Amino acid sequence: MIISVTSLKGGVGKSTIAQNLAVCFANSDYKVCIVDVDANQSAMRWSGLREDNLPAVPVYGLTDGMELSKNVKHLNQSHEIVIIDGTPSLSQVTSKIILLADLLIIPILPSGLDIWATEKFLERYQDAVQQKEESIPARFLINQNQTTNLSKEVLEVLEQTGIPVLKSTLKSRVSYREAVIKGLGVYEYKDEKARFEIAELFKELKSVIQHISKRK
Ligand SMILES: Nc1ncnc2c1ncn2[C@@H]1O[C@H](COP(=O)(O)OP(=O)(O)OP(=O)(O)O)[C@@H](O)[C@H]1O
Ligand SMILES: [Mg+2]
Hints:
This protein is an alpha/beta fold. The protein has one domain (2-208): 3-Layer(aba) Sandwich (Rossmann fold). The chain has helices at 14-27, 42-49, 65-78, 92-100, 112-116, 118-132, 152-159, 174-180, 192-215, and strands spanning 2-5, 32-36, 59-61, 81-85, 103-108, 138-142.
């Protein structure tokens, strides 16, 4: 199963979400890896800080777009879950990442400006669906949420895209920033609320994955 975490916007939490989900999978005994396609190599650096006694999350830096599809498919044969940490660029790599995905997670910050910025991304997504000639399951994930109830306005705009919004959201928490520099996911960190939040997201995602696998 290939899960691509991608969007055309920078700084929306792609790497944070890819790492934190990978940690949840690893702690549930899944054989998981991350593919880092970003030239900044944030996931690579994070994994360099991860201690050996923790559940393994190998990270592969694949910045060469040419070989990307072949290499990712190869990794998908030896891992149950491959999580692609996307780049914020409009390059062809983004289209490839969308095409490769069994499930697309699109992080988004709950602000009008960020939502409008998804329009270009949605064009890419529609092109990929046409090219693949089959649906590519996708979900929005609201990151850095600061309210208990998401504003109706934000949800309404997102719903118009036809891509469902995950019920679980991630709040803006210092723990996400702290855990990363220790090579951890918040699931392994001291903040109970963050741990609960990521576990809830993981649960919801597993049920989405089950649903997708059944349809295949
Ligand atoms: N839920 C959160 N709470 C607090 N800080 C967060 C949260 N999610 C992400 N961040 C912080 O926001 C910044 C951007 O996050 P991240 O690097 O994951 O985004 P990105 O989409 O991968 O960025 P890029 O497009 O540059 O690759 C980082 O400093 C990260 O620690
Ligand atoms: Mg990143």
